[in-house]
């Protein structure tokens, strides 16, 4: 699929009146979404390019700006992955991106934990901590059901700035209300940072208390 078609489909997905994330809608309206096209989410072919683009995005973030930015990776496919298979592919890509950080000597951000079981975990890439949202054509939650696999990287530090100035709680409540209206129920996987590991939310699949995150942080040699 051509870049222009992929970007158009994602913009239409966000612009849909039923889509619950008002933060994404605001970012799109302010031209604050950086989109990167890749091929197969199950293959490592584009990992180096994704890593380079995400590091460039990390370097461009301005925490003093009121505009919240996101980095989006849009994959060509596969578009028939079950939720468990999508989850595996998503964590494989995140593991590979982290491994590239390790090879380059980039340390985990000091403000968040590298242990995916910790309630203070956030994924650190390029020295920037991120909350990752996976989108999948076969997601059980409609808000996560995009026409192709995708990963959205939201800066943890930007969220903390929103929390500090009081905007985060208001935005969170609006998003959760809209998501419940869209899906017919509250998302049982939602929790705030510091309450439970956010890794449980990345793929969008509902998991139980015995779920183990398939991610292993590596030490810089």
How do the helices and strands line up, and which of them pair or pack?
Layout: H1 3-15, H2 22-29, E1 33-40, H3 47-60, E2 70-77, H4 83-104, E3 123-125, E4 128-135, E5 150-155, H5 156-164, H6 167-183
Parallel strand pairs: 1-2
Antiparallel strand pairs: 2-5, 3-4, 4-5
Low-confidence stretches: none
- Helix and strand run: HHEHEHEEEHH
Shape annotation: globular
Q: Helical element count?
A: 6
Q: What's the helical proportion of residues?
A: 25-40%
Q: Please, what is the average pLDDT?
A: 93
Structural class: alpha+beta
Task: Record the strand order, biggest sheet.
Answer: 1-2-5-4-3
Largest sheet: 5 strands, mixed
User: Radius of gyration from the CA trace?
Assistant: 16 Å
Instruction: Classify the beta-strand content into a percent band.
Output: 5-15%
Number of strands: 5
Distance between the termini: 40 Å
Count of domain modules: 1
